[in-house]
Amino acid sequence: MLLTEIDAVDWPAIPAPPPRPRTAGAADGPPAERPDPAAGLRALAAARDLDAVTAAVAALISGSLLRAVAGEVLPGAVVAAPFLLDIAERGHPHARESAVVLLDRAMRSAPLAGFGRFRTSAGHDAPLCCAIAELVRARRDALARCGRSGAYLLQASRAHWRFDIREAFGAADEPGVVVALGVLRGGPPPPSSGGELHQAGAVTAVGAVGVECPPVDATRDACLRLSGLPAGAVGEGGLTGAVLYPAVCGDRAD
Ligand SMILES: [Zn+2]
Q: pLDDT digit string (tens) for 183-211?
């Protein structure tokens, strides 16, 4: 079933930088073949011993999902994340740990210029790390049953918080300051965080994000104070439907 789902993805359609030449002189020769994420994922899903797991991971970190030597993550890692999560939940014990490590490394690695964002189902161009963290959090219940590694991965996803704004109010006597109500996933934003606000295809820098009221129950409802917004950032429609990501992730993505 998992193998069928991996094969159903149109992997070549996922944006990816050209493969690096293997040797210094190879740049003049025929272009290197683009690594195929499906082959590595299939191998990891089917692995039944440590050697097979090691070979699959080596394939995945050498240019199809990650470029481990350079510490880089590729957009294919976002598409691969649900499959890695499946393997983390149900794969061979050695493969489970490796899938968690791959997801963790993908969230920690820097993307390449021009390949740092992924269009979410809501239409926002999220930093790759934050798009992966969102997929990790969507499996919270299953990961919580995966022992220490599952808990570790959920904890790692917290740095890639996301705030979906429901309502926002400008402070009349404080230009550039907005108090916003919405749903906070991950986080909370640490003190002195900045943010990037995504709304209707536009991205606006938010100088500082403060937590006025942290989430206290499963609804994850929270109230954040956004300051340092440029004049006119809050249009007539307010900020309803806007999404805030950590500035540190956005800066790394561009
Ligand atoms: Zn992030």
A: 999 989 999 899 999 998 889 999 999 99
Enclosing H/E stretch for 180: strand 178-185
- pTM of this structure: 0.92
The residues, ordered by sequence, that sit 6+ positions from 145 with a Cβ below 8 Å of its Cβ are 89
Domain that holds residue 103: 2-157
Question: Of 69, 66, 81, 94, which Cα lies nearest the Cα of 120?
Answer: 81
Same domain membership, residue 132 and residue 39: yes
Q: Please give the distance, rounded to the nearest whole angstrom, from the Cα atom of residue 136 to the centre of ligand 1.
A: 12
Q: In one letter, which amino acid is 236?
A: E
Domain check: are 147 and 171 in the same one?
no
CA of 31 to the centre of ligand 1 (A): 32
Domain count, the chain: 2
Å from CA of 44 to ligand 1 middle = 25
Do 105 and 91 belong together in one domain?
Answer: yes
Lookup: tokens for 91: 């794969």
Q: Which residues contact 209 (CB under 8 A, 6 or more apart)?
A: 163, 189, 193, 194, 195, 224, 225, 226, 244
